[in-house]
Amino acid sequence: MLMKASLGVFAVLVSFLAYVSTREGKFRYERSGVIAASPEDIYPYLFDLRKGAEWSPYEKADPTMKKTFSGPEAQVGSVLEFDSDKGAGAGRLEVLKAVPNELVEIKLTMTKPIRADNVVEYRLTPEADGTRFTWSMAGDGGFIGKLMNVFIDCEEMVAGQFSEGIDNLKALIEAKK
C-alpha cells in the first residue's frame, strides 16, 4: 500500500513538473502613465541612477539598502549595485543605452532572491497633456520563473511596483512645477 501511495505521489509530481516545463519562460511586464511635464524635465530622473532614490518603489521599500555607484555618473556605463534585506533583493543595474529625453535601457542582474538577467526600459513619449512614461522589463525566467508563476502572479507583483514608481515620479515632477 505504501508503495502504491509513493508511486501516486511521484506520478503527480512528475505530471506537475511536466506542466510547469510547458509554460512560457520569457516575459515582458509594462506599465505607463502620463506626467504633466516635458520629457526634458523627466529624463534626468531616469538616466541618473543616483536619482532613483527620489522615486523608485524599491528604494522606498528599503531606505537602508546598501548602494554602490561606479562608472561614469549619469552616462551610459553607469552602474548601481544594491543589496537589500527588505524585499528589493540584491543585484546590479547598468545603463546600456540612452537616447536623451526618449529612452533609457538598463541591464538588471539580480543575484538574490534568485538569479536573473533582465532588460529594463524607460521610455518617454510626448502627449498633448504631458509625457507618457512607460516602464517595462523583459527577460527569461527559466524553469524557476515558470515554477514561481504557477504560485505567484509575478506580472501583477512587478507591474504593480512599476505603477507605484510611475506615481512616485509623477508626484515628484509635478510638485516641482
Widest β-sheet, arrangement of strands: 1-7-6-5-4-3-2
Task: Assign the CATH class.
Answer: Alpha Beta
Largest β-sheet summary? 7 strands, antiparallel
Strand percentage, roughly?
35-45%
The CATH architecture is 2-Layer Sandwich
What is the domain total for the residues? 1
The amount of helix comes to 25-40%
The backbone outline, from C-alpha atoms, is: elongated
In round numbers, the mean pLDDT is: 86
Structural class: alpha+beta
CATH superfamily: START domain
List low-pLDDT spans.
none
Give the topology string: H per helix, E per strand.
Answer: HEHHEEEEEEHH
Distance between the termini: 74 Å
Can you tag this structure with a few keywords?
single chain; 177 residues; alpha+beta; Alpha-D-Glucose-1,6-Bisphosphate, Chain A, domain 4; seven-stranded antiparallel beta sheet; 38% helix; 36% strand
Describe this structure in words.
The chain is of the alpha+beta class. It has a single domain (25-175), classed as 2-Layer Sandwich (Alpha-D-Glucose-1,6-Bisphosphate, Chain A, domain 4), CATH 3.30.530. It contains five helices and seven strands; from the N terminus they run H-E-H-H-E-E-E-E-E-E-H-H. It has helices at residues 2-22, 39-47, 57-61, 142-151, 154-175; strands at 26-35, 66-70, 79-83, 90-99, 103-112, 116-127, 130-140. A seven-stranded antiparallel β-sheet has the order 1-7-6-5-4-3-2. Strand 3 and strand 4 form a beta hairpin. It is elongated and about 75 Å long. The model has no long low-confidence stretch (mean pLDDT 86).
